[in-house]
Design a protein that fits this description.
Layout lengths: L3 E6 L4 H13 L3 E7 L14 E2 L3 H7 L4 E4 L6 H10 L3 E5 L6 H11 L6 E4 L6 H12 L4 E9 L16 H17 L4 E10 L2 E10 L5 E7 L1 E11 L4 E5 L10 E5 L5 E5 L5 H15 L7 H20 L2
Parallel strand pairs: 1-2, 1-4, 2-3, 4-5, 5-6, 7-10
Antiparallel strand pairs: 7-11, 8-9, 9-10, 11-12, 12-13, 13-14
Helix pairs in contact: 1-7, 3-4, 4-8, 6-8
Length: 318
């Protein structure tokens, strides 16, 4: 497979340096040729052969790269994606892909007659354990789901705490709790708000019950103000399947817990994998072979549409 060249926006960002850049460097056939940081005078990529550009526009239009990785605050995603697509550069963009479903509709519109790939950097879907957990949930005929992703975010200066930049707990971690549920149960027909707390217009704590077709039901929690927890469980009322740390698993997280109809418990073991590298490998294959990446824009839109609906109901019923 031929080499895929990459450029990195916001090259000083924490997620870029802790996860995606190491994954790119660990993936055979990936090479970072350029980067840009508008907020930090020095970043780790400055010590490499990658060219540092003075602006995102200069980098996207002049680097000649195959692919762009975007870890910017959420409100900057759409404009940079539009520039990249117009310049013939494929895009891997941090989640959430956009501020709302209307923005994703725009992305779908300006990419529909193009071979350029735009994908949301949702790494969990590349986890072998996540894929197996969903398979088992389907096998048992799950009709109920419970998902929680909570942690205490005390950094009030962070853009995630500012609604203008697409901040808030639901946009930040909502994809993790919603994607597996929508995948198995479909989009909900009704949203019931249990709790909804905001700080200066930014959602801090949200608890919701979603009603799906055929009587299926899910209960989700996202929060910046509760102790750290990741939880995902599917059940048919008797048997159930769940996993510890389901959304950001390490290579050592390989266990799936299953309870059968008789209440007996067993542990299934899956392969562990480096999910960020798996995401990069999948994206590179799509770029080189002209195939679809694992995560589609329609899947991103479906999750975002439900997020929009939850906000609409929550803010209209206070």
């Amino acid at each position: 497979m031929r080499e895929v060249t990459w450029i990195i926006a916001a090259s000083g960002s924490s997620i870029a340096n802790s996860a995606v850049i190491p994954a790119l460097e660990a993936t055979e056939g990936s090479r970072i040729i350029g980067h840009c940081s508008l907020s930090q005078p020095q970043v780790p990529l400055d010590t490499t052969d990658a060219i540092r550009y003075n602006s995102y526009e200069e980098m996207v239009t002049e680097s000649g790269a195959d692919a762009l990785y975007i870890p910017l605050p959420n409100n900057y995603h759409l404009d940079l994606i539009r520039l990249a697509v117009a310049s013939g550069v494929n895009v891997l963009c941090e989640k959430p892909l956009a501020m709302d479903a209307h923005e994703i509709d725009e992305i779908i519109e300006f990419t529909q007659n193009s071979s350029i790939i735009v994908e949301e950097a949702y790494m969990t879907t590349h986890s072998i354990r996540d894929q197996r957990l969903r398979e088992v949930a389907r096998e048992i005929g799950a009709v109920e789901a419970e998902a929680r992703f909570t942690f205490e975010n005390k950094s009030y200066q962070n853009y995630r705490m500012d609604r203008r930049f697409g901040g808030g707990a639901l946009l930040d971690v909502g994809i993790y709790v919603l994607d597996p549920i929508i995948d198995l149960f479909g989009e909900p027909s009704r949203v019931d708000i249990v709790t909804f707390t905001e700080r200066d217009g930014t959602d801090m704590d949200l608890e919701v019950v979603l009603h799906h077709s055929d009587g299926k039901r899910s209960h989700i929690v996202t929060s910046f103000g509760r102790p750290e927890e990741q939880y995902l469980r599917f059940s048919n009322g008797n048997s159930a399947v769940s996993a510890k740390r389901p959304f950001t698993p390490s290579i050592d997280d390989v266990q799936i817990e299953v309870v059968d109809d008789n209440g007996s418990k067993k542990t299934l073991l899956t392969e562990g994998n480096y999910i960020y590298r798996a995401m990069v490998e999948d994206f590179n294959r799509a770029v080189v072979n002209g195939t679809a990446p694992r995560r589609s824009l329609s899947q991103s839109r479906s999750v975002q549409k439900v997020i929009d609906e939850i906000f609409e109901v929550a803010r209209s019923t206070r």
